[in-house]
Design a protein that fits this description.
Helices cover 28% and strands 14% of the residues. It is built from 11 helices and 17 strands. The longest helix is centred in the middle third of the chain and has 23 residues, at 218-240. The model is unreliable at 245-264 (pLDDT under 50).
């Protein structure tokens, strides 16, 4: 049964398919008005991207302001977004310092909670899921939790490596299920549970789209056509994603598979896998199908390899132990995903702002440097405008500040996204500068 707010929103519908519409100037498609936000105004979205094992220690830096901001080489892909970027230095999670290994530093990255060890699994509800729970009933999908590397169920130094594999937690004892398959993530946004068969999502709603097009402005017709074309492109790329023979991660003992390849598996090219998940994040925000997405690009203690970069001789975790040119290449692949999302969102106009202006994207890791497991200051960069509430073009240094808790940042982000709390994790004070 749809909630009242969802039922008042406009959708394109077909057999077994419900497709949310993008923001339009001539029709109110996004539900009811409230004192906080007119129905025609786009909501604030939050996207969290995680890269395991930290970054190149000598090239993760920023200085200056606005267009004059200088970026270290790790952040070079974000050069075009300096005026919408906030580089944050010196934050940390006190509980993460207790184990000084990957699992003990990752499982509480988004909650600041103490972690159980010795076979028990307990963390804390992460801030993304707290925000998603507050949006329950407002969007078709409360949150998308996406991943590009499967979870590791083993144990490392008395800590479950499920902590290394999950940054999003729906409750202290429940890591949020991770969607690794782009096709299934796409289905969550657009297909209804009763739908069966292989018909294109777009084909299913074309008749309804044609009817809807007659009642909107010329500019909105163009916007609708661009949106439908972007959906078609992602569908087609998902279909092609598993056809390559390039394998990531653990190297098999055979030169080629000796069994038929499953039709709907994880894409074999890690770059294409990441890119598809980025596109799905953008579609989810563009249609307001979800306002919260967490994208784990890899695990902490990751086993991914990167043959497309010419870096196939060592897994990600081991690469992180030295600041080499190859490590920098891999870092830029990851920060390039953030830049790709930002560019796509910035091209979507939502009234006077772009979708990027209405979004807060955060890229983070559970350690600054993989070689030292340094979690005393965490790498954090924000991109986007938070609905006009987040000022970009700044470097914020909390290294010697009295309040340098990561959870203080989350309190600030939650507030800008419409959820005001007195406390979260180990913090009772937001970061006023953010």
């Amino acid at each position: 049964m749809p909630t009242p707010e969802l039922s008042r929103r406009l959708f394109l519908r077909g057999v077994g398919v419900t497709m949310a519409l993008p923001w339009l100037e001539s029709r109110n498609v996004w539900g009811v008005e409230s004192a906080a936000r007119p129905a025609s105004e786009a909501p604030v979205r939050v996207g969290v991207l995680f890269a395991g094992n930290g970054f190149h220690g000598k090239e993760w830096w920023a200085k200056g302001r606005g267009k004059a901001m200088e970026l270290g080489q790790v952040l070079a892909p974000l050069q075009d977004f300096r005026e919408k970027l906030v580089f944050i230095k010196g934050l940390y999670n006190e509980e993460a310092l207790k184990g000084n290994i990957h699992s003990s530093q990752t499982g509480n990255l988004l909650s600041g909670a103490p972690l159980a060890s010795g076979g028990e699994i307990r963390s804390g509800t992460s801030f993304d899921q707290l925000l998603a729970q507050s949006h329950a009933g407002s969007t078709k999908v409360p949150s998308l939790v996406l991943g590009c590397e499967q979870a590791n169920p083993s144990v490392h130094k008395n800590y479950s490596m499920l902590y290394s594999s999950h940054i999003s937690w729906s409750s202290p004892t429940s890591p949020t299920p991770l969607e690794l398959f782009p096709a299934l993530a796409f289905d969550r946004l657009f297909k209804d549970e009763a739908r069966r068969g292989d018909q294109s999502v777009l084909d299913a709603v074309l008749a309804d789209a044609d009817d809807f097009r007659r009642d909107v402005s010329l500019a909105d017709r163009r916007k609708l056509d661009e949106y439908l074309e972007s959906v078609r492109e992602v569908e087609q790329r998902i279909e092609r994603a598993g056809t390559r023979g390039e394998l990531q991660g653990w190297k098999p003992t055979l030169d080629r598979p000796n069994v038929p390849r499953p039709a709907d598996g994880v894409p074999q090219d890690i770059g294409e896998h990441m890119r598809l998940m980025c596109d799905i994040l953008v579609l989810g925000f563009q249609t307001d199908a979800t306002r919260v997405t967490t994208l784990k690009l890899n695990n902490d203690h990751s086993s991914l390899r990167f043959p497309q970069l010419g870096v196939d001789y060592m897994i990600h975790h081991l690469l992180s132990h030295a600041d080499t040119p190859d490590w920098l290449k891999v870092n830029q692949l990851f920060t390039g995903q953030l830049a790709y999302i930002a560019r796509k969102l910035d091209a979507i106009q939502e009234g006077e702002r772009t979708a990027l202006d209405n979004t807060m994207l955060m890229l983070c890791s559970s350690m600054l440097s993989g070689g030292t497991h340094d979690a005393t200051q965490l790498p954090v960069v924000l991109v986007g405008g938070g609905g006009g509430k987040l000022q970009g073009g700044r470097v914020l240094d909390y290294l010697n500040a009295p309040n340098r808790k990561m959870c203080s940042l989350y309190l600030s982000m939650l507030d800008k996204a419409g959820l005001r709390l007195d406390a979260f994790g180990d913090s009772t004070e937001p970061l006023a500068e953010v």
